[in-house]
Specification:
It contains 5 helices and 7 strands, in the order βββαβααβααββ. The chain has 174 residues and is an alpha+beta fold.
């Protein structure tokens, strides 16, 4: 049985949610895909990456590294949230409704995986500040057990900005 922990914070007009998935890995092990570069990020995604790592450094933690599989997962979720105009970790109407399903789809065999989502923030600084002001999101950002990340942002047809950041540690990196 898989257990999911959800925490949500709502601050008009901004909303946040966080998710942690248990250690059970889905599917076969994946080949390593981490790099230290962020060339696949948009300017705003790069800012989020830098701001998150600045928060980690302030707490004496190692910075996260870019991971192409986690990045794909984050972009899939951001795009699906924008498509369905619904901020959530689980989107039953999607082909990949859960974090675990997205991990399996991209081949990310995880030892640990977590996700932050948000809606309605105008820029990188405000979304990171919102996450840092929320206990669950802050816990994901500052988790010593995660070493990699991916970030996605998508705009809905109605104009809302949907954010997703996935944090992880591959099963093979234990």
């Amino acid at each position: 049985m898989r257990t999911w922990k959800f925490a949500a914070a709502v601050a008009a007009p901004m909303m946040l949610a966080t998710c942690i998935v248990p250690v059970t890995p889905p599917g076969p092990p994946a080949s390593p895909a981490a790099t230290t570069g962020t060339s696949r990020y948009s300017a705003t995604e790069s800012q989020i990456f830098d701001l998150i790592n600045a928060e980690r450094r302030q707490q004496g933690l190692h910075p996260l590294v870019f991971n192409a599989q986690l990045d794909r997962m984050a972009k899939i979720q951001a795009e699906n949230m924008a498509r369905f105009q619904k901020m959530a970790h689980t989107l039953p109407e999607s082909n990949l409704p859960t974090l675990a399903a997205r991990a399996k789809y991209v081949g990310y065999a995880y030892g640990q995986i977590e996700e932050n989502v948000a809606l309605g923030y105008p820029n990188a600084e405000t979304v990171v500040q919102g996450w840092m002001n929320s206990a669950g999101h802050r816990r994901n950002i500052l988790d010593r057990g995660v070493v990699e990340t991916g970030i996605g942002i998508a705009r809905s047809a109605a104009g809302g900005l949907y954010y997703c950041q996935v944090f992880g540690r591959r099963l093979t990196s234990l």
